[in-house]
């Protein structure tokens, strides 16, 4: 009789405690945390305007319901922003707190490491207290004749000269970004570009540093529009001429190179609205690339003798060069490396020779060669397997591009032609050539640094970066072989290492920047002669103690066995590593870019609240070399998504977090990776956020919608028949919170693409998950500019994460009375206490009620009382409802279920045939394939079927298409999705409930690649059912500590039976892994640490091999909750002695009134054990 009073006392105690706790709002149904997100705000309604789009290639046209979101009215973006702000309004104090924390870690004034600029100056930048941007300054070098040393310091007594103040330039603009600065050889002029919209379109300015006079102000109408369409590459050819690249107006592709004489006079160019010619400053066009797959890049070499021009597509490079001694009409480019498909180049010059890393389809990680600088120097410059220079082969010609202005400014030839105009008058390749480092699949050459006496090589070996310096011959000759190298590496488990801004060409110093997840960014000067390494500067982080934080490098096995590296960091005393810690998992996986682990001061706000922060280095990135990149692009893009899912699974299994504590974050290509992974494994993450997700851009490329980056176009259209990436925007069934962020002026991913993605997710999601869309109306792809603007965005992101996956950590941090780690929530405990009190009172006052009977059967009474009341319940005649300890029923075996389904389908087909005959019609082939559809209910629409096919069928990896059996398993998953989620939506209540066979027929009819097999569907389906009956089944027998009872689960449907938790063995899964997975899915209990692989029972049930592992010591009080929907309806503990030992006995049990599915369930002690001589469980049984 103590239970009701205990519940009431607990309720009173919690109500008293709650008076001290702030108000809480529930994030969504099922969330019992302390989340402050306000979900009562009405969700914006996105209208649907149907637009038919013409597709490219063989892709059929489709209807786009959300294309109108591109409308420049932008009302929808404003509404979405208002909604996101309203939902997150309760977190504004938290956002402000996070912002203050981040700003407090940054010193009031911070300066970069000074570097020599020419012979006379130290160049550096400063961030001043209270300012948002940086100021570029310089001071004179005391002794210009002294050789550079790693011990050099800048004399602060020398007057500081301010070159550019970004805060002054940014005044009056909500966004500001600067390209450059670039300095003239005589150090008197500086060129820079200004972007005030975030569109990455820069306006060119040139300033005289001596007088302060602005020589070129591209924003002035006295200059032609080219000065306002710059790509950000500014190179002084000499002290009077400047080269710059410009962008196309539609796709913002760098396609032209211009030469401008700074002291030229304006000329007549263009017309005004009144058709009068105007006088303007006009640059001279040097080069134009008309091939939309290529964009141009321009830079000046460290030796100051060469200006390079590179054309780059996603797969191919070509190179031109120009001597800095060129001037006037002589300033033209000469071919250096022709365009050859899938050949990529990285070059550095020194002493008249060219050191080049060349990547080819056969050697993607690159070979390092040295050649004499000259026309076509890199033509056929790779080595064969014996290390000899390859003979001339068929290239795409020696021209830089297939069309456009040539190096001389005249019309270029087509891609197959070669002329002296394109080769500088010399089609012969370089005379000197040597292979310095052959290709290796495990070692990628990342970067080169060349000085007058040294060659430094940055390499990545199995993901680890290291720099090696090699001496060059003193007589100025090139290297013939690499030897006597000095290697410089670091000891962290994983880290980032890169070459910094190098000093004068004559310097023997190598500057590198090093950082890890626990080590703030540090700049070192390395003396390549002595090997001495001097720390020049380490990022100052106020209050940071690196000894409190720990980093790890882990490896997760992906679906195809690939080992995916994971870098993670956490604060030691704040995590438990028992699965209860919140975790943020980030990924990128695109364009071969490496997401190396670097220190983040702002990330401390998460780590100090008990977060684990991890990076999944998925394929598509460059963390393990160019082959890692190739394995995650185009037709292999699915590997990126599989890798992220594998990393999350591993972190959950390794107890770094759990499914309700893990969140995913990705920007740009990383947004695509996260979105697609969520679409495949929606219940894998609690929350996700994508900034500028690139997934919907595929739609724009395929259907001629709006311009996207042309390089992306060539990348996607090369395999546009593959719809793998389109699945990223289709469905998010279970993820609780999804936030998508974009920039209005983003030139890489249009702002309307994330908007369409959010609308599509809201339309198709099958849960009450929260979808937020936030569009920065004054920024582009890289979001806010300015220090505080960037930190505000991070504070927004962190507040969102804290309130969705770790609200208790937030409350504990803000309210110390809740303790260091809030392990429960006030609202949940109040509800639990109220339920206990009320239910127990009902049990006492009305013991014969249904609630009382169920309560007793759930174990809510003492042992003696339970036995007494259980005896009294025998005559209540409730038909076996509830948890009766004598009740036993079994699952229908797969073979019997299949036979029943086939019989039902045949009956329906015959009924359909009779119905048609009465109308004078006959069954079509389509009807024959699908079986019968009764008149009640309607079939899924073509659009709905297309979306299901894209998600479940068209994105399958090749391994899942090896046989019809594997394919039909995926179709079965799609069928479950249709029955369990799609038909539950209010607008789909009239959809027909289909059998698996009927659904399979629809899929075969819809997918073009399966249509030729429609006539064989009956045979294929029969073979599939036969195959299913042979798939091994693995599960577990969960025993209580007394070894007298076992746990049984009952199916979700009313006529479902009881049985042990079990399921079919998946591909590449061990017996124990399958059993643990099935138990976790059906009960929510992780038995990984309890399962002993030698303790099991084997049985052959029909054609099916069954193995049940024996798991001991599972308390009866364990709370069970399935991780899958609509599969498990109830749990119950049953006496082992009451289980039927045979199929006949189970039928007798059924005839006596117990519910059964009519199939045999093995009685543990009646079967042979395996792998051991009588384990403890078997002896007890």
From TrEMBL:
Pfam families: DCP2 (PF05026), NUDIX (PF00293), Peptidase_S9 (PF00326), Peptidase_S9_N (PF02897). Its cofactor is Mn(2+). It is found in: Cytoplasm. Residues 381-424 are annotated as: Disordered. One of its GO terms (biological process) is deadenylation-dependent decapping of nuclear-transcribed mRNA. Serine peptidase whose precise substrate specificity remains unclear. Does not cleave peptides after a arginine or lysine residue. Regulates trans-Golgi network morphology and sorting by regulating the membrane binding of the AP-1 complex. May play a role in the regulation of synaptic vesicle exocytosis. Belongs to the peptidase S9A family. This is Prolyl endopeptidase-like.
